[in-house]
Amino acid sequence: MITGFNDDLEYNGIIYHIQTEDRGTNSPFVETRVYRGGANIYLQKTPYTKVRKHAKVEDIIKEIMTIQHLQIKEDVLAGKFDDHKLDTLVDDLRNDVNTDKIIVTFLSKD
Q1: What is the pLDDT of residues 51-71, one digit of tens each?
Q2: CA-CA distance, 79 to 19, in Å (whole number)?
Q3: Domain range spanning residue 35?
Q4: Which of 51, 34, 54 is closest to 42 using CA atoms?
Q5: What average pLDDT does this structure show over 79-84?
Q6: CA 12 vs CA 15, 82, 91, 107: distances in Å
Q7: What does the pLDDT look like over 37-49, one tens digit per residue?
Q8: Of 19, 18, 24, 17, nearest to 2 (Cα)?
Q9: What is the reported pTM?
């Protein structure tokens, strides 16, 4: 299991906590949660089942974690988690991270 990321961001006077972690190869997902006032308001899970036996699986997971975490931070600062927008945007946000694209890009770096 890989160490994750934790950030607190302020947007419109509200503190959002963003937490990204690897669930481990037995549960091959990268999860990012957004908290506001201690309540979990959003969860994004990105699977990495296809690469869990790859020789560079840890590097690939780190790349997925980094991209996913940064994307959610950008979304918070863009106001996508405002109360009036949250319900309509959750489905769109879940599709923002394309695992296959991240993996192909990472592997093509070699």
Answers
A1: 888 888 899 999 999 999 999
A2: 18
A3: 5-107
A4: 34
A5: 79
A6: 8, 9, 23, 39
A7: 889 999 999 999 8
A8: 24
A9: 0.75
